[in-house]
Amino acid sequence: MKLSITLIALCLVPMVWGQILNQGGDTLQVHSKAILDLQLRLSTVEHLRNEDALRIADLSKQQQIDKRRIADLEKQHQIDDNRISDFVNKRDEDNRTIADLEKKRQDDHQRIADLEKQQRVFQRRIAYLEKNPRVGDQRRLTYPQKQEPRRNLAPSQKIAFNSFTNRTTRMVDGRRMASVRKTRSFGLNPRDSALPSPTLETSNQGIKKRVSSDNGRLVAFYAVLTHSYTEVAKLMEIHFDQVVTNLGGSYSGNTGTFTCTHAGVYVFSWTVHVNPRYMYTELVKNGNVIGNAFSGDSQFSGIGGGSVVVQLDQGDEVWVRLGEHTSGTQIFVHTRTTMFSGFLLQ
């Protein structure tokens, strides 16, 4: 029995081993195929890795190129910034040059205006000298003097007189003649016979001297503004265009300038009507401010002005101009409230 079992077992061993070998061969084939697949995948991965390495190399190279390009662009940007800075500096320099030229142009215009004013002064002076070739000679005016014949009075008819002085004024050629003092006598006490008889004393020589002196030195003017100034600017001159009085012909309504033809002490007055806000005005002598005035109100219109007493020499010029003012301020014209006047005091 045991032998039979052993024989059977020995017969079965080759069969089992064959099956094992068959199964091992199949497994080996499977593993071989898997190994081949892995080798193929490894080859593919290595190929992809090589391609990635090449791509990385290309990207690194491109990165270097981009870095150099960026460096070049930054350098160019710096050059552009320097050029822009140079352009800005050149523009600022050009602006300063333009400002200097504009200032010189304004100075030239002011100089031209001053020369034109001086030319007008010379022309008026020449015309005055041509009209009066002998300015130094005093013109003598004579007037007939009425003298009443004295009547011989009886002693009983003699009366006493006290005298008083009467100051009179005459007009000669449209100008004020010098005052003439007349001494007259009037009876006050008929019982007093010790006083002299009535007399009329008039100094013809004094008349001649005073008339010739004052007739040539009478200077006075009065002018008003007839139109409003809706747009004003600092240092703008006010031309008081309507000349009401101009004795001596020293004021020009076209330029708004008084030109001194006789040296002496003058009195100037001016008023300016402002609507709305406020404005400062200046009285100017030969470009120098000699008087200031304030006109206006914070919300409503207002009138302001001033008066100045000043010594002038022949050829000096006096005018009124604008000073500081608020935006939107206008010079208002209403019943001659904006005016300029002056006269020779002594």
UniProtKB/TrEMBL annotation:
Q: Which GO cellular component term is one of those annotated?
A: extracellular region
List the SUPFAM superfamilies hit by this protein, alphabetically: TNF-like
> Sorted alphabetically, which keywords does the UniProt record give?
Coiled coil, Secreted, Signal
The main location class comes to secreted
State where the protein is found: Secreted
PROSITE patterns, from UniProt? Answer: C1Q
* Coiled coil is among the record's keywords: yes
Cite the Pfam families for this sequence.
C1q
Signal peptide positions are: 1-18
Indicate the segments annotated as coiled coil, or none if absent.
Answer: 56-132
Domain C1q residue range list: 214-346
Protein name per Swiss-Prot or TrEMBL: Complement C1q-like protein 2
The record lists the organism as: Mizuhopecten yessoensis
Organism lineage: Eukaryota, Metazoa, Spiralia, Lophotrochozoa, Mollusca
